[in-house]
Design a protein that fits this description.
globular; alpha+beta; 8 strands
């Protein structure tokens, strides 16, 4: 039986980004050896979107569907202010009918999304 999800986030500087998740976002995790941290995520959901072509990542000798990571929050504006106070660079806040979004720049230079849903979520909050 499926009991959870494991997200792979590819980074050009995994050490720095792991430190960011641990120290700035304060995600709890485990060290599975050699400083390789795996973090617990908050409750999550998955939405299947149409693709605009091939969007895949090679892993474990398979071409797996690509994914985009958004961390969900109740108040995006306050979350951005809190992160900026910690010297985290956040992108502009955008509003769509389905939610309010911004990006967070990781120490590696890569970005992930922040998302305040304006619709019902798939899990109880």
């Amino acid at each position: 039986m499926i009991f959870g999800a494991h997200v792979l986030l590819y980074s050009n500087d995994p050490e720095a980004d792991r430190t960011f998740f641990r120290d700035v976002l304060q995600f709890k995790g485990v060290d599975v050896g050699g400083g390789w941290l795996i973090f617990a995520l908050p409750p999550s959901e998955i939405a299947v979107h149409p693709s605009e072509g091939t969007f895949a990542q090679s892993h474990a000798a398979h071409s797996l569907l690509g994914a985009i990571v958004y961390l969900m929050c109740d108040d995006l504006g306050e979350t951005v202010k809190t992160l900026q106070a910690k010297k985290v660079v956040c992108g502009d806040i955008d509003r769509a009918p389905w939610g309010i979004t911004a990006t967070v720049r990781l120490p590696s230079g890569g970005e992930i999304g922040l998302y305040q849903p304006l619709h019902q979520t798939a899990f109880a909050r």
